[in-house]
Design goal:
By secondary structure, this protein is mostly beta strands. About 10% of the residues lie in helices and about 45% in strands.
């Protein structure tokens, strides 16, 4: 019995050690950086252009030169409040939108023609699991994040949802939540009082996300069982958290935004991540 107990304890200790293994650090290099006044909340990218996104405005820029190609801005007193991500699929720019930091939280998906930046569609979630901060598309499936926060805003006397309620979700064909996961507590702690801000599926098959401020990218894998995503990697990047987008036309390159408070300039950056 004693010998059996020792073996079980040894195996349990090994399992705990494996589960507590630190995420791998991936080397990176900045390969492009362009000024863009709209680069406050997120960036999207396609073969020829990047799209700098702020709360109520989008700029389309040439990906090689940084020259501005088109601009969309919401009308004064228009319906847009807080755009927070972007992804280009089949010539359409999709963005997560919410009423952040108003209460109760409401969210929608907004759609533009990517070439002209004409707004062409919307899909409202109303009051749901939190504040929709990003969406992305892979293998015919849409995913996204409903963020919650520990910071107190405006009229609400309570924390804005509690960051531990943040969920990564998979939508079905009718935009209903078909599956959902939570983030590991060790990763949530890195967000301080904020939450998951950006997300994009990488060429390595992992989901890469960001917080609100730190210049880091976090690689996640789906769990083999249970509801907690596995944090498997971290990559430093010249970003300030916020929305990100893997470039499907440039190997191992991910785009982000940075708000340089010292220079008073917003920029879109591209980072090459040395993936295994």
């Amino acid at each position: 019995m004693l010998r059996t107990a020792i073996v079980i304890a040894f195996l349990a200790a090994g399992l705990m050690s494996a589960q507590a293994e630190d995420p791998k650090t991936y080397p990176t290099e900045t390969v492009a950086s362009f000024p863009a006044p709209e680069a406050r909340q997120a960036v999207a990218v396609d073969a020829d252009a990047f799209y700098a996104i702020t709360d109520r405005s989008i700029g389309r820029y040439d990906k090689k030169t940084g020259a501005k190609l088109a601009t969309w801005t919401d009308a004064k007193n228009g319906p847009f409040i807080h755009l927070d991500s972007g992804v280009v699929i089949d010539g359409k720019l999709y963005a997560a939108h919410s009423n952040y930091p108003e209460w109760p939280m409401t969210s929608s998906i907004e759609i533009w023609d990517a070439a002209t930046l004409q707004h062409i569609g919307t899909r409202s979630f109303g009051i749901d699991r939190g504040s929709l901060t990003w969406i992305d598309y892979r293998d015919g499936v849409w995913c996204g994040a409903f963020a919650n926060y520990n910071r107190v805003f405006g009229r609400s006397p309570l924390a804005y949802g509690n960051k531990y309620n943040t969920q990564i979700v998979r939508f079905d064909a009718d935009w209903r939540v078909a599956e959902a996961w939570v983030l590991p507590p060790q990763l949530i702690e890195k967000f301080q009082d904020m939450s998951n801000s950006g997300g994009s599926w990488g060429p390595d098959g992992r989901l890469w996300i960001t917080g609100h401020d730190l210049p880091e990218l976090y690689a996640l894998e789906l769990p083999k069982a249970g509801s907690v995503l596995r944090w498997v990697g971290t990559a430093p990047a010249h970003i300030a958290g916020q929305g990100i987008a893997w470039d499907r036309t440039q190997k191992d390159v991910i785009w982000g935004v940075i708000r340089d408070k010292v220079k008073g300039e917003n920029r879109v950056t591209a980072t090459r991540v040395q993936l295994p």
